Amino acid sequence: MGNTPFMLKAGVLGAGHLGKIHLKLLQQSDRYELVGFYDSNPEYAREVEASLGYTYFPDIDELIAACDMIDVVTPTTYHHESGKKVLEAGKHLFIEKPITVTVAEAQELISLSRKHNVKGQVGHVERFNDAFRTVQDRIENPMFIETHRLAEFNPRGTDVSVVLDLMIHDIDAILSVVKSPVKSVSSSGVSVISETPDIANARIEFENGCVANLTASRISLKKMRKARFFQRDAYISVDFLTKKVEVVRMKDAPEVPGDFDMILQNAEGIKKQIYFDNPDIEESNAILMELETFADAIENNTRPIVNLEDGTSALDVALKIIENFKSL
């Protein structure tokens, strides 16, 4: 059978829609032992306990004390307060995206995690999407990136900005592959149904010349979650929704092309061969993977894949995009 894996005692704060998914996956995982959960609504929490069998802790501090790792799946407004409690108790912190409401709050969580020598990871789940994971290493120095994240209208989601709800996924993915500081951010947004913009477009320019153009909408008639990366000699397309990828590469054309080789010739007479390099995609559960790779980082004392600094960088860019709407 081999060695029993290192198991961490885990607790969940917040048992809403996503909280329940996290509870289920932590219970299934062989990396965690689920201790229980806390929710600020005692009546609702008792219902969850009765129907799903997870142990409800009416006292948040008691739950934190009983665990090695706490998974914060509360509304964003409580992230800072909850995260602070967890880190000050010297426990590892997994926190949903966006990390906090403000960058200052996020920076406080970073300094607390350093002070107490514990790890933190932010739930930017698209980083664990099978399609993105498969091609991530092939994205090398992209110079133009375009993303579209369109969702159908859901009144439940309009209390939070479309940028913090949807676009932040793409901001994080882009920041993870562009190895250069952000130089400038410009954006425009339109409020169609809600008080805040329902559709937004942003342009992020990086110091190295890379430009990213992002569009997010929550009033679309169809769902779409696509990103396209253009780099020297390659074009990479990622469909986060259908989990499909397309990698188109260019290389110098052979002296004697084959009958089926696709050859392009530019104005200078240079011939290039186009070939498709579409890798196989291994399927996995992205939320389970983000939680389990966090367990690996804790066990091996390595950097979490999406650490608190990454979550803060994505929040910083998202807030700059929102700030631009106000100045329009």
UniProtKB/TrEMBL annotation:
Gfo/Idh/MocA-like oxidoreductase N-terminal domain boundaries: 9-124
Gene Ontology MF: a single term: nucleotide binding
Superkingdom of the organism of origin: Bacteria
Boundaries of every GFO/IDH/MocA-like oxidoreductase domain copy: 155-222
Protein name in the entry: Oxidoreductase, Gfo/Idh/MocA family
Natural source organism: Nonlabens marinus S1-08
